[in-house]
Amino acid sequence: MKYVILILVLTGGALKMQAQEKKQSLKDLLFSGKLKKDSTGVIRSTDDLSQKIDTATKKEALTVNSNAPATNVPQDNTTATSKAAASTTVAAGTTVAASGVDIGATKADTTATAPVAATSAPAKSNTKLLKEYTDSVVRALQEGPLKSKQIKKNTYFVMMDYEIDTNGEVNFTNVTSTPENSFLQAQVKQILDSTPLHLNPVTDSNNQGKKVKRKQQFSVTKE
Predict the structure, then answer these.
(1) What is the pTM of this model?
(2) Which of 36, 62, 118, 159 could form an S-S bond across to 54 if both were Cys, CB 3.0 to 4.6 Å?
(3) What are phi and psi of 214, to 5 degrees?
(4) How many CB atoms are located within 10 Å of the residue 96 CB?
(5) DSSP alpha helices (H): ranges in 114-181?
């Protein structure tokens, strides 16, 4: 008898738990909207719930959810930054174009207007240096000594003997004149000694400066 009662209790408990589970399933289906719309609007606990499920609604819900944008997906900051930089570059280029600044022309103008570096003048030859020097001696004679009564009216040819040192310095060693005039010769020698002359050094085959002796003649006229 005890076994029969125990079996009945267990059976009753199992049926009760099955009924509760069915009610819970029915409740879940109601709140999830998966039940088919029924004109009667009445669902009994003894009904087969599998016949009441709206499979089309479930599929539609899944489709909608699959197409919904992911709100929690992190965006690629690198891509966004690159796009922003590209936009900035395009904007900057547009601004330059709109302003009408011709970079190529500006560079060309700057190059064209740049001052050309001054080149050093070529060194004068000893012949030209001597010519300029003797011309200055003649002017000095005309401004003073030629006005003296000791020099008669005539054209005088003055010969200068000189020596060029290794560094180009000139030393005048003797002065003569034709026709001879000692006063004129003394005046010329005085001018030469008071006016130093520097020429280009004379070099040997080894490009080393050497001393050389030379002569130079010029003429002066008293009218």
Answers:
(1) 0.47
(2) 36
(3) -140, 170
(4) 12
(5) 126-143
